[in-house]
Specification:
The protein has about 180 residues and is an alpha/beta fold. The structure holds flavin mononucleotide. Flavin mononucleotide (FMN) binds next to α2 and α5.
Length: about 180
């Protein structure tokens, strides 16, 4: 399918959570439903999900390095290309970094360059103590106030064995919300 035949362009950003494997399912759902998907992974995200899975599913190389030769303006070009940005999963570290406005990597730079021109969604995924920590909950409140859409987290047994909030919203639920998004 050519670029002009795809429904929308999504920038799917993964960060360092144990739930990162679910990003592959979300990418698969989006591609099967004619979305163009470009993945960006944080350094932490790459430790949990290999590039090959995401590249194989989307047909595009996973981007991480803002200073890669030949790709130095990606943070500007990708922000123009994308119709919607989703951080899935969003780690505690990533959330607090966005709240601080740090732009020392590709995800941070994209966040500032986009400056809320297009929707920026955040899907938290972490241990319930991390999720309830004021550093994280305050950051989520501020990001929401700035214009981010914070997706709900599920409650239940988490990968670390504890029970509570902080479980990543399932790929099919996120996909359904994305399909509803106007524009
Ligand atoms: C096995 C393991 C699982 C982890 N799971 C999570 C998680 O689910 N959520 C989270 O916020 N951090 C988690 N962390 C910690 C992050 O990976 C760590 O803060 C990392 O620096 C985040 O990188 P990022 O900013 O690139 O996302 C985990 C760490 C390990 C070693």
């Amino acid at each position: 399918m050519s670029e002009s035949e795809t429904k929308k362009n999504v920038l799917l950003m993964t960060s360092g959570s144990i739930a990162a494997f679910k990003a592959a399912s979300l990418a698969s759902l989006l591609v099967k439903n004619d979305w163009a998907v470009q993945c960006v992974a944080s350094e932490g995200g790459r430790r949990f999900l290999g590039d090959a899975a995401l590249e194989g599913l989307t047909g595009r190389p996973v981007l991480t390095d803002m200073f890669e030769r030949g790709r130095a303006l990606d943070h500007i070009k990708l922000a123009d290309w994308a119709d919607i940005f989703i951080l899935y999963p969003a780690s505690a570290n990533r959330i607090t970094r966005l709240r601080a406005g740090l732009a020392d990597d590709l995800i941070g730079a994209l966040f500032l360059v986009n400056n809320f021109r297009k929707p920026w969604w955040i899907a938290p995924a972490m241990n319930s103590n991390m999720f309830e920590h004021p550093a994280v909950s305050d950051a989520l409140g501020i990001l929401e106030g700035w214009g981010c859409r914070i997706l709900p987290t599920g409650e239940g047994r988490l990968a670390c064995g504890t029970v509570g909030y902080g479980r990543l919203l399932e790929p099919d639920e996120v996909f359904a919300l994305m399909e509803e998004e106007p524009g």
